[in-house]
TrEMBL record:
Keywords: Cell membrane, Membrane, Symport, Transmembrane, Transmembrane helix, Transport. Belongs to the major facilitator superfamily. Metabolite:H+ Symporter (MHS) family (TC 2.A.1.6) family. The chain crosses the membrane at residues 35-53, 59-83, 95-113, 159-183, 195-214, 248-266, 286-307, 337-355, 376-401, 407-426. The lineage of its organism: Bacteria, Pseudomonadati, Pseudomonadota, Betaproteobacteria, Burkholderiales. It comes from Castellaniella hirudinis. Coiled coil: none annotated. The keyword Acetylation does not apply. Residues 23-435 form the Major facilitator superfamily (MFS) profile domain. It is found in: Cell membrane. This is MFS transporter.
Length: 437
């Protein structure tokens, strides 16, 4: 009998571990590809600005580059509705297998784009179009992978297994940081602008193929198969979500706001902030971010374990309070800190962020019942990221220019933490309970 097709909990422990390992790899690879792309785009922002927006000032070009980054998130809620519907009605595995092909294909196509000098304004328009396709397909990855893992995981280890998903995003950022840092060292500015910036996006094709191969060789989650067997699959999961689970949806959007703003400010925008606003060398800023990402990945799993022991609500409230109290002092310290000090501050920020990131995917999976789990997670997560996450680098750059205050991004992050705190106070504890059906 194929162990993948047997309900978890009724198969031998060794076979169960093999299934979980495959599920973990399937959840890891898609988000890894997605965030490797986002990291490459964000860390190469100054180069991409020169390639696609050469006729404006460097500051305007940078804002235009981050504007394209932000606009690609507008389609994420639409993608969240589509992939949530698909995943709750057709299956988690089918949705994840399709989304990774579309996402990696659009990312690969970015590497083949002609630049502004070759086709003029069509270059940035094509860039925007491909990022919209990439954003649409990627909008189901984080939610689908998290729900898939949580529905397979033992009940007392759901937080640990769900933390694999944010760890995969950080790993994608880490590889992007390492690759871009190496490119800045090995390539001249002319080589980076001519062809070097294309290299990270070319990797999407083989990575996407590997991810799809892993996913199509898995059975769907036990929870979804149970729901199929009992004929309880909803034909309109999004309508069911909006009519019967509005409170859970609003709480999820609120708590995800801190995740969205914090992730993009700390892990995506920070190298640009250090280089452009504080005058730190690009190589040093990338090295600091890389070290912080390594620490972040380690902290993620620790926070997943702690959420299993202390509870999701406790961890998410602690994360919000910590950001409210410590964000401005830590940002203030960056201006006067040396290289070692910058690394320590970024590691501290990473630790704070993992309190939220390491807990959130499990919480968002547990707060919704199986019939709308994918839809609820995908819609809330993508709405928050579309409104607050993808726009965070753009808003941070604009706030600094509008106010003249280099601490403006810190205050923006404090506001996000305050909203997340209110949302979590209104929530209930979800750990230690059976998944809702």
């Amino acid at each position: 009998m194929n162990s993948d097709t047997v309900r978890m909990g009724t198969i031998p422990a060794a076979a169960e571990r093999r299934v979980i390992s495959k599920v973990a790899a399937a959840g890891f690879i898609g988000n890894f590809v997605e965030w490797f792309d986002y990291a490459s785009y964000a860390y190469l922002a100054t180069v991409i600005a020169a390639v696609f927006f050469p006729d404006v000032s460097p500051a305007a070009g940078l804002m235009a580059t981050f504007g394209v980054f932000a606009l690609s998130f507008i389609i994420r809620p639409i993608g969240g509705v589509f992939w949530g519907h698909y995943g709750d009605k057709i299956g988690r595995k089918q949705a994840l297998s399709l989304s990774i092909i579309i996402m990696s294909g659009a990312t690969f196509a970015i590497a083949l784009l002609p630049d502004f000098q070759q086709i003029g304004v069509w270059a940035p328009l094509l860039l925007l179009g491909l990022r919209l396709i990439q954003g649409f397909s990627a909008s189901g990855e984080y939610a689908g992978a998290s729900a898939f893992l949580v529905e397979y995981a033992p009940s007392h280890k759901r937080g640990l297994y769900a933390s694999i998903v944010p760890a995969s995003t950080a790993s994608g950022l880490l590889l992007g940081s390492l690759m871009v840092a190496g490119m800045h060292v090995l390539l001249t500015p002319e080589q980076l602008q001519s062809w070097g910036w294309r290299l990270p996006f070319l990797l999407a094709a083989p990575l996407g193929y590997i991810g799809r191969y892993i996913r199509v060789h898995l059975e769907d989650s036990p929870k979804f198969r149970e729901m199929e067997a009992s004929r309880e699959v909803s034909h309109a999961p999004v309508s069911l979500l909006l009519s019967q689970h509005r409170r859970a949806l609003l709480i999820s959007i609120g708590v995800t706001m801190l995740n969205a703003v914090g992730f993009y400010i700390i892990l995506s925008y920070m190298p640009t902030y250090l280089a452009v606003e504080l005058g730190v060398g690009e190589t040093d800023s990338f090295i600091a971010t890389t070290i912080a990402l390594v620490a972040y990945i380690g902290f993620i799993f620790l926070m997943g374990v702690l959420s299993d022991r202390l509870g999701r609500k406790t961890m998410l409230i602690l994360a919000s309070v910590a950001f409210i109290c410590l964000t401005v002092p830590l940002f203030s310290g960056l201006a006067s800190a040396g290289f070692l000090g910058i690394i320590l501050i970024q590691v501290a920020f990473g630790a704070l962020l993992t309190m939220n990131d390491g807990t959130l995917p499990c919480f968002l999976s547990e707060i919704f019942p199986t019939r709308v789990r994918y839809s609820g997670f995908a819609l809330s997560f993508n709405l928050a990221n579309a409104i607050f996450g993808g726009t965070a680098p753009f808003i941070a750059t604009w706030l600094i220019q509008a106010t003249g205050d280099k601490l403006a991004p810190a205050w923006y992050l404090v506001v996000a933490a305050g909203i997340a705190l209110v949302a979590m106070i209104m929530s209930r504890e979800t750990s230690g309970e059976p998944l809702q059906d």
